[in-house]
Amino acid sequence: MQISPLQQGIINRYQKGFPLTSEPFKTIADELNTSENEVISAFKELESNNVLSRIGPVFDHKKAGASTLAAIAVPPEQLDEIAEKVNKFEQVNHNYAREHDFNLWFVVTDSDWLALNNTLAEIEQATGLSVLVLPMEASYHIDLSFDVDFSQPTNHGLEN
Question: What is the distance between the alpha carbons of residues 116 and 99, in angstroms, rounded to a whole number?
């Protein structure tokens, strides 16, 4: 996929500081000197090409309810099917495959610990598999935003 200058500007500028307005795409359009429809189209194309996975906040989970990392040991041939079932829960904000006996990991956030435990039980019921709960013992803030440049091909430091 070829990334347009508008899409690259969106990626670099709005990893942080996404506008908290009633019309965020219009705000972005005004800031980037383009139309709201162009911004929306750029976001849709980034999403459909799996460049953008989600738009959402990062917040201190302790101030917003209860949250935990969880994992399931899934038979490899069922990984996609089970991941799809887990993704249907609105309390799950992402999941990913791991090379481990517990090969499907995900984060669950809910309004409080009782609701979180109920959601975990529902996930077990929906998947037919036990959920390993891995509560956070210490919190670390890692800034994962970075500038990207899609205009220059790279060998990622590897020599030919």
Answer: 26
DSSP 103-158: -EEEEEEESSHHHHHHHHHHHHHHHTS--EEE--SS-----------TTS---TT-
User: So what's the pLDDT on residue 104?
Assistant: 96
111-148 tens-digit pLDDT: 999 999 999 999 999 999 999 999 888 777 666 677 77
Stated pTM of the model: 0.60
d(CA 134, CA 151): 40
Residue identified by tokens 């709201």 is 36
Is residue 53 within 8 Å of 95, Cβ to Cβ?
no
Distance (Å, whole) CA 121 – CA 129:
10
Q: What pLDDT score was predicted for residue 113?
A: 92
Query: How many other C-beta atoms can be found within 10 angstroms of the C-beta atom of residue 147?
Result: 9
